[in-house]
Give the backbone structure.
Amino acid sequence: MPAAKRVLVVDDDAAIRELLVSVLSRRDLLVDQAGDGSEALDLLRQNSYSVVLLDLLMPNVDGFGVLDELDSAISTPVVLVITGAERSLLKQLDAQRIHGIVRKPFDAEDLGNLVVACAEIKSRGTFEAMAISAMIAGGPLLAWINRFGG
């Protein structure tokens, strides 16, 4: 049996965290959660994650702060930003550090499918190489990411 893929959900809204933990756990993912960026950074330094779902606007250390410190993580995860922030704020994101943007409100089941696909791709090799392969092949992963980005 393959090792469980580990996901980190970072959001200051407990209801969103609980929803995502429930949806992702049903998909055989090992899910950790953090209520702010400081907790997230501690977990990223202790554990290796396939995927991080990261809210941008949080107290203490925000999502931008987490992205700035991502180099201190044990491994480099696929980062999907989940946010309701204005588009002008999203323009500040570093495209080198994130792999997709999911706008709030979102469909939790669709997001769960996206996370599973990202975790599977990440487990097969570097995400960047797999994303290029998916783009060449016209794979569903990029269609999902584009769908959420709108």
In short: Strands lie at 5-10, 29-34, 51-55, 78-83, 100-103. Helices lie at 14-25, 37-46, 63-68, 87-90, 108-124, 127-137, 140-149. DSSP finds seven helices and five strands in the chain. The chain has one domain: 5-149.
